[in-house]
Fold this sequence. Notes:
The protein is an all-alpha fold. The chain has helices spanning 17-29, 37-68, 85-94, 98-120, 122-132, 138-141.
Amino acid sequence: MYQGQRIRIVTSNPISWHELTLRLFAAVSKEGKELDPMSVLKAMDTVLSRIAGQMGSRSLIARAVTVAHAGSPWRGSERITPEGVMEHLEKRLSAISSEERIAGEVAVVSSLLGLLHTFIGEQLTLQLIQDAWPHLDPEQLVVRKGPHHEQKNNGPYQ
């Protein structure tokens, strides 16, 4: 439906990466199946692996985990390596409640998007999201910070 449509930036107000992540989770969960909290991160890993290789993608994800959960008790004290980051997350997230699990992945994906924004810019970061979910309406995902952009209810992923 939305395949081929590209996200266009029409304002200079910065994107709220956390809010975009919440909307992304809500949109993916509306696809008619129960959301596996790791599915959003796995989709981003797939897209990133195409351009940065698997080690490049996993290195960014490992850094996002470190940034997102520096003080989180479930993160664990072991060093997170790019080779084992997905297994580490699966293991740690499976040991906590469903609500905490979703909050954990939202934090990691938000951090990942923020890191991507820093490294490749807003437009390319949004393009990667569009590449991962070409059927989603990009206009419903983009959320801007600022007084002229109202915040909408995102259902259970607030």
